[in-house]
Design a protein that fits this description.
Helix 2 packs parallel to helix 3 (about 90-110). The strands form 2 sheets. A 4-stranded parallel β-sheet has the order 2-1-3-4, with helices on both faces. A two-stranded antiparallel sheet has the order 5-6. The chain is built from 5 helices and 6 strands. It has about 160 residues and is α/β, with parallel strands linked by helices. Helix 1 links the parallel strand 1 (about 15-20) and strand 2 (about 50-55). It has helices at about 25-40, 60-70, 90-110, 120-130, 135-155, and strands at about 15-20, 50-55, 75-85, 110-120, 130, 135. Helix content is about 45%, strand content about 20%. The chain has one domain: Lumazine/riboflavin synthase (Rossmann fold, 3-Layer(aba) Sandwich). The longest helix has 20 residues, at about 90-110. The relative contact order is 0.24.
Length: about 160
């Protein structure tokens, strides 16, 4: 019989860190609401969750890495919203955050979940923060719980 490792969608007893960008907070606050609601609906108590607000998307990774390295969390959710503007700044920010979140996974062995919206328009961001396309914060919370359980099994 083939042994299978799978996560399941329950918060368990571990703690979750959420790093949220304050830039575009009219969107990121909705992502945070979605993540908190999802974690609570899957059994997390408030004392299992820590939220850290940072100024912008580029600052997410340094705080997320420090939290992951602390050994206190089974997963770190990274939430933000980068919306394309009139300059090339968008591409630089997106690349920095994607690379940084990925590097946290490699460096710490703690799941760092990418919940940063990278949208061309404000309308796209709104759709992904709780309307037509669901809530990317809730999706990040589901991924965090599943990965926490997978990582527990592969230790």
């Amino acid at each position: 019989m083939i042994e299978q490792i799978q996560g399941h969608l329950a918060a368990g007893k571990g703690k979750y860190a959420i790093v949220v960008s304050r830039f575009n907070d009219f969107i990121t606050a909705k992502l945070l609401e979605g993540a908190l609601d999802c974690l609570r609906r899957h059994g997390a108590a408030d004392d299992q969750i820590q939220v850290a607000w940072v100024p912008g998307a580029c600052e997410i990774t340094i705080v997320a890495k420090k939290l992951a390295q602390s050994g206190r969390y089974v997963a770190v959710l990274c939430l933000g919203a980068v919306i394309r503007g009139q300059t090339g700044h968008y591409d630089a920010v997106c690349q920095q955050v994607v690379r940084g979140v990925g590097q946290i996974n490699y460096d710490t062995g703690v799941p760092a979940v990418f919940g940063v919206l990278t949208c061309d328009t404000l309308e796209q961001a709104i759709e992904r923060a709780g309307t037509k396309m669901g809530n990317a914060g809730a999706d990040a919370a589901l991924t965090a719980m599943e990965m926490a359980h997978v990582m527990e099994q592969v230790k």
